[in-house]
């Protein structure tokens, strides 16, 4: 596993930003981390990067404790929500700084990327567009040659074209360099294009975790004559329900075939799943589908 957490929590005074977070993220995946504001996404990523320390539980990243030393820090790249760059430094000075701070720095890769992206090495970061700053921050994160790249809402402030270009470039980098990525975003449509693994956080807890293909294969929309959901088989976990006078529509999780001929069964999207789990009260442990 590239990232493993058990009972992980973080408090700020009396406020709990993350609670009882237990999850395993396998290596080699691009994981989408989804949840509303205040759900604990940034806290989880900062804990994984070693920027914060837990107040309870444990977290292991790339086989070690986050932030525990130079060797461990070199394994993780982190692009924070504001895609931090220094307005007064040029692009070239950012890359020089990256080379000084990261023992595994790949200078050829860094300059190849900025050349391909059309970034002027002499241009100060403060004069770059939002998309260009995001690409510069991503270049620094990739050029340190990490095993795991953490991205906290990296495209939130970008226009649709810049967002698409950023995501396309990210996928090319993942394919070329074999990165594992955890990408936090509110934009589920973007995640569907680039991710193959999903985590939904709500109220500082994990609601669902698993690979896209397996999640989509075990969740269905059922439409049929109006009925009481309490009459459903016990192996069908109801996530959302709506009724009209004559019809009931459900989103259910089940690993068993749906045999009732009264139901019309249709597939769901990742966005359907995210909205269902975010809307559902927390009444039982998180669903984890990893196989």
UniProtKB/TrEMBL annotation:
Q: Name one Pfam family in it.
A: ABC_tran
The record's InterPro entries line, in alphabetical order, gives: AAA+_ATPase, ABC_transporter-like_ATP-bd, ABC_Transporter_VariousFunc, P-loop_NTPase
- The answer, when asked if Cell cycle is one of the entry's keywords, is no
Q: Which residues form the ABC transporter domain?
A: 3-228
Per UniProt, the keywords (alphabetical) are: ATP-binding, Nucleotide-binding, Transport
| Alphabetical list of PANTHER family matching this protein | ABC TRANSPORTER ATP-BINDING PROTEIN ALBC-RELATED
Please give the name of this protein.
ATPase component of ABC-type multidrug transport system
- Organism in which the protein naturally occurs: Kibdelosporangium persicum
């Amino acid at each position: 596993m590239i990232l493993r957490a058990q009972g992980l929590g973080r408090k700020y005074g009396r406020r709990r930003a993350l609670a009882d977070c237990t999850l395993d993220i396998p290596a080699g995946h691009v994981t989408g981390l989804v949840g509303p504001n205040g759900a604990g996404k940034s806290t989880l990523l900062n804990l994984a990067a070693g920027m914060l320390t837990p107040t309870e539980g444990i977290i292991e990243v790339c086989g070690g404790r986050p932030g525990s030393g130079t060797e461990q820090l070199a394994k993780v790249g982190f692009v924070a929500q504001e895609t931090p760059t220094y307005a007064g430094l040029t692009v070239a000075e950012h890359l020089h700084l990256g080379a000084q701070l990261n023992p595994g720095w790949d200078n050829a890769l860094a300059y190849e990327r900025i050349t391909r992206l059309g970034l002027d090495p002499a241009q100060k970061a403060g004069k770059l567009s939002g998309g260009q700053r995001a690409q510069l921050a991503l270049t620094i994160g990739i050029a340190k040659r990490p095993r795991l790249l953490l991205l906290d809402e990296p495209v939130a402030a970008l226009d649709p074209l810049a967002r698409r270009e950023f995501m396309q470039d990210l996928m090319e980098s993942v394919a070329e360099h074999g990165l594992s990525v955890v990408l936090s975003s509110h934009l589920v449509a973007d995640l569907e294009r680039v991710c193959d693994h999903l985590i939904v956080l709500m109220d500082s807890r994990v609601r669902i975790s698993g690979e896209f293909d397996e999640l989509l294969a075990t969740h269905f929309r059922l439409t049929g004559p109006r009925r009481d959901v309490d009459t459903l088989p016990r192996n069908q976990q109801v996530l959302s329900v709506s009724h009209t006078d004559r019809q009931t529509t459900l989103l259910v999780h089940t690993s068993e075939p749906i045999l009732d001929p009264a139901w019309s069964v249709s597939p769901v999207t990742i966005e359907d799943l995210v909205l269902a789990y975010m809307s559902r009260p927390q009444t039982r442990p998180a669903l984890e589908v990893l196989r």
